[in-house]
Amino acid sequence: MVKKNACVFISGTGSNLKNLILQSRNYNFPINIKIVISNNRNAFGLIYAKRNAIRYFLINTKNDKYIHQLTNTLIKEKIELICLAGFMKILPKKFFDLFRKKIINIHPSLLPKFKGLNTYKRVLENKEKKTGCTVHYVNKKLDSGNTICQKTFYVAPNDDEFSLKIKTQRLERVVFPEAIFKIYRYN
Ligand code: GRF
Predict the structure, then answer these.
(1) Is the entire prediction scored with pTM above 0.85?
(2) Nearest C-alpha to atom 10 of ligand 1 is from which residue?
(3) Domains along the sequence of the chain with CATH
């Protein structure tokens, strides 16, 4: 099986990156993580790129100049799937035209509910019975592209933001690889 070249964008902890690297060691996992992109030079997740000898690039998102160089890198490296995994910046709209249907994101709520930040807090404030996480295609509107995979769990009466985060991120380890399998199932 010929694996597709993928890149992972991060900003912080990188637990999804760590998991995707682990998954990609399986011979039947559809992608190979060729590069990592971070807008934060202190992102803890960069350690997983270093440990696994995956090249990483830092981007400065303060103005849109970086986008030209980033696009060239992704094209040069023949990247076919861009995984946003805790990437906390909004990419410029022209980026989506270039990589249509090739960018996916993981979000810690049951989209279309609770787009944007502070999802756990809002889930609790809204007294939701269920929550979970979603992997979706990225388009020009925030957290609004088509859903690829979603996983749900029941909110317990004693759940707080911390426990919701732990439970959600545990499910993220399952849903992100599953979404990637799903994308390539028929390809
Ligand atoms: C994840 O919970 C993801 O849903 C959200 O940001 C968090 C990133 O975590 N978009 P990590 O950096 O992968 O540990």
Answers:
(1) yes
(2) 86
(3) 1-99 (3.40.50.170), 105-187 (3.40.50.170)
